[in-house]
Amino acid sequence: MNSAAWPAPAKINRFLHVVGRRDDGYHLLQTLFQFLDMSDWLYFTRTTDGRVCRVGDVPGVSEAADLSVRAARLLQEATDCACGAVIRLDKRLPTGGGLGGGSSDAATTLVALNEIWDTGLDEDALAGLGLRLGADVPVFVRGRAAWGEGIGERLIPVSLDEPWFLVVDPGVAVATARVFQAPELTRNSPRITISSFYTGGVRNDCEPIVRRLYPEIGRALDWLEQFGVARLTGTGACIFAPFAQEHLARGALECLPRRWRGWVVRGCNRSPLLRRRRLSRSGSASRVR
Ligand SMILES: C[C@@](CO)(OP(=O)(O)O)[C@H](O)COP(=O)(O)OP(=O)(O)OC[C@H]1O[C@@H](n2ccc(N)nc2=O)[C@H](O)[C@@H]1O
Ligand SMILES: Nc1ncnc2c1ncn2[C@@H]1O[C@H](COP(=O)(O)OP(=O)(O)O)[C@@H](O)[C@H]1O
């Protein structure tokens, strides 16, 4: 039995610029990923029958589509592993919220089952497998706050300030593909260097599109802006604003209109998963099929 709890933390995009587009339609980004001390929780039981299944309901996510189940099957195939797993997902992060919950569930599954099944892949191999499941999965596998380029898979670890954040969920599910398909999306933001982040010349290029497609998110941004710089994470729906001290963020949370949900959480440069995992140093990417 391996039923210990594994965290699948949230991420935010401290900023997000769209700097181009690949031939396959995917957008080239510049972004800063940071983790939040706020997680889904996953429980794994190793079995010997080779089956991967999920127990329990996850609202809006069928077992077959669940990225944790798909990640387990991918790891199994890639390593010819004969083991199976029963997966239980305690879903805490809003789905389609721009907090990367599904991608994080996939990354935690890859990292946890690599350990539980003893499949011996190293971090690069796991990140490569993760990329097949989604653009955001590699940063969760690596677990370090990062400057991201490409579609988010070219990652340079960074050490950012770790403020408290008030994160607000306006209760709308955003379809990432719909935002990226919008004709008026800015796709040619000039490339910047990391120092621009600290001098304040950054934004989230998806925000004007999201405000138009999902007016409730615009209303939430306007509300949060009274406390400081409010920004969308990823393609939304969640938004965040930093606070220098926890009590200031909690004071703002107390004023939150009742129709929205909010959390006061700490930004972290090392993800809760990184603290939990024990990656094999001798693992070999050559074991990936
Ligand atoms: C935009 C970001 C920023 O962190 O965040 P979210 O708001 O989704 O969390 C991510 O890059 C999202 O990553 P992820 O959620 O894994 O996206 P994927 O499943 O790979 O892609 C969903 C769809 O969005 C579009 N897409 C996604 C990423 C990207 N760089 N360019 C795109 O054009 C594609 O149409 C793709 O089919
Ligand atoms: N375990 C999962 N948790 C959440 N969403 C999942 C999961 N597996 C698949 N999905 C799908 O992934 C999509 C993106 O979900 P999520 O990662 O929560 O949001 P975002 O990409 O906006 O940060 C959802 O529309 C959902 O259908």
TrEMBL record:
| Gene3D superfamilies in alphabetical order | 3.30.230.10, GHMP kinase, C-terminal domain
> Broadest EC class?
transferase
Limits of the GHMP kinase C-terminal domain? 205-260
Q: Where is the GHMP kinase N-terminal domain?
A: 68-143
Is the keyword ATP-binding assigned to this protein? yes
Q: Which reaction is recorded as catalysed by this protein?
A: 4-CDP-2-C-methyl-D-erythritol + ATP = 4-CDP-2-C-methyl-D-erythritol 2-phosphate + ADP + H(+)
InterPro entries named among the record's database cross-references: GHMP_kinase_C_dom, GHMP_kinase_C_sf, GHMP_kinase_N_dom, IspE, Ribosomal_Su5_D2-typ_SF, Ribsml_uS5_D2-typ_fold_subgr
SUPFAM superfamilies xrefs? GHMP Kinase, C-terminal domain, Ribosomal protein S5 domain 2-like
Q: Which family does it belong to?
A: Belongs to the GHMP kinase family. IspE subfamily.
For this entry, the protein name equals 4-diphosphocytidyl-2-C-methyl-D-erythritol kinase
Which lineage is the organism of this entry classified under, starting from the top rank? Bacteria, Pseudomonadati, Pseudomonadota, Gammaproteobacteria, Chromatiales
What is the name of the gene encoding this protein? Answer: ispE
